[in-house]
Amino acid sequence: MPLGIEITPAVVSLSPASVEAPQLSIHSPGATFAAEARTLTLDLPRRLDREIARPQVGAGRGRAVLKRALETVPALIALTVISSLIWGPLFVPVPFAICILAFHAYWLWRAQMNGIHAFKGFLLLRRHKKTDWRAEYEQRRADGKLYLEWEAIRHIVIIPNYTETAEKLRPCLDSLAESPEAASIVAVLAIEEREGAEGRRRADVLCGEYKGRVGGIFATYHPWGIPGEVAGKSSNENWAARRAKEYLVDRLGYNIDCITITSCDADTVFDRNYFSCLTYHFATDPNRYLRFWQAPFFFYNNIWHIPAPLRFSHSLAGMTQMGRLSRSFLRMRWPMPPPRVSPPTPVWLTIPLVVARP
After folding, report:
1. What residues does each domain of the chain span?
2. pLDDT higher than 80, residue 307
3. pTM higher than 0.85
C-alpha cells in the first residue's frame, strides 16, 4: 500500500499585467553630423604598398562546377538504383540477383525485429500499467537504494499553443488533473504574445478552471520579434521553460535538482499513471541527470475522424514506437504508460530541469 502523505501544493495563478511603454524623446542628430563632417579630413595614401590581387574567375567557376556535381550525386545514385531494375538483369544478372536477395533479407529481418519488439513493448505496457509505482519506490527506499524524496519532486509540463481553442486544451489539462501526482505538476500554458487579447482571455479561463486541480498553472507570453530568434514552437517552449525556471526555482525556491520538465503538444492526453511512473524512475535512477524519458505515443484521440489509410499508417507508427523503445540495445528509457495524441507527430519527451538549464 502506498503511503498516504498530505501535500499542500503551491498553486500558481498569474494574471497578465499591462505594461506601459516608456516615452522616448528622439532628437535629430543631422545638424551635429553635418558639423562634424565639415571638420573631418582624410589623408589619402599617395601610392599603394602592394597591388590588389585580381579575382580568379576560373577558380570560382571550378568550385561552382564541383559543388554542382556533388549536389547531383544523390539524384544519380537514386536514378541508377531505380533504373537497375531494367538494365540489371540484362547486363549484370548475378550481382543484380545478389543485391535483390540481400535487400529482401534485410527487410525481412527489419520486419521480424519490429514485430517481435512491438509485442515485447505491448507486454511491457500492460505490466507497467498494473504497477503500483509508489509501492515500488518504498521497496527501493527500504533496500537503501539511491533515491530522491517522492514529495520533493515536481513536474513542469509545457503546453505550447497558438490559436488553439480552450476546448482543445482541456483534454490535456484534464489528464494532468486526474493523475495521482497532480499536486506535483505545474502546467505552463506557452502562448504567443502576437495572439493578443484572445490568447490572454484563453489563459485566464483555463487558469481559473484548473487552479487547485493541479499543483500550479500559469501562462507565459512569448514576445514577437526577438533578435536572432526563429519564431515557432521551439522558441515558444524555450521562452516558457525559462520563465518557469525563474518563477519556480529563482522566486519560489524549488530545488532544481528535483524538477523534471516535459514538452508535449496541445492535444496530448497523458495516461493516469504516467507521472507516477516518471516520478519513480526519476527518484530511483542514480543516473537521472544523464537520462531523458520518452514514452511511445499513439494517434488514437481522433482516429475515427480521419480517413482509413491514415488510420493504418498511424497504427503502424504506434507499433514502431513500441518496438524501438523495447529494444535491449540502442534503446531509450521506458517510462510507461504512454500518452495518446492526435496527428501530426509531436515532439514529446521529459528531461531533468537541471540538465536543460533554461
Report:
1. 133-295+335-356
2. yes
3. no
Chain segment 130-177, per-residue pLDDT in tens:
999 999 999 988 888 778 999 999 999 999 999 999 999 999 999 999
Averaged confidence pLDDT in the chain = 79
Tell me the per-residue pLDDT of 24-46, one tens digit each, with 9 for 90 and over.
333 333 333 333 333 333 344 44
pLDDT tier, 356 (very low <50, low <70, confident <90, very high otherwise):
low
Q: Which of 81-85, 277-281, 320-324 has the lowest mean pLDDT?
A: 320-324
Fold of the domain spanning 133-295+335-356: Spore Coat Polysaccharide Biosynthesis Protein SpsA; Chain A (3.90.550)
Task: Judge whether 269 and 175 are in contact, CB under 8 Å.
Answer: yes
349-352 and 185-192: which strand pairing? unpaired
> Which residue type is seen at 258?
C
Q: In this model, does residue 84 exceed pLDDT 90?
A: yes
Residue 211: phi and psi, rounded to 5, are -65, 125
Q: What is the 3-state secondary structure (H, E, C) of the chain?
A: CCCCCCCCCCCCCCCCCCCCCCCCCCCCCHHHHHHHHHHCCCCCCCCCCCCCCCCCHHHHHHHHHHHHHHHHHHHHHHHHHHHHHHHHHHHCHHHHHHHHHHHHHHHHHHHHHHHHHHHHHHHHHHHHHCCCHHHHHHHHHHCCCCCCCHHHCEEEEEEEECCCCHHHHHHHHHHHHCCCCHHHEEEEEEEEHHHCHHHHHHHHHHHHHHECCECEEEEEEECCCCCCCCCCHHHHHHHHHHHHHHHHHHHCCCCHHHEEEEECCCCCECCCCHHHHHHHHHHHCCCHHHCCECCCCECCCCHHHCCHHHHHHHHHHHHHHHHHHCCCCCCCECCCCCCECCCCCCCCEEEEHHHHCC
154, amino acid identity: R
Laid out side by side, the sheet with 154-161 consists of 216-222, 185-192, 154-161, 259-263, 349-352
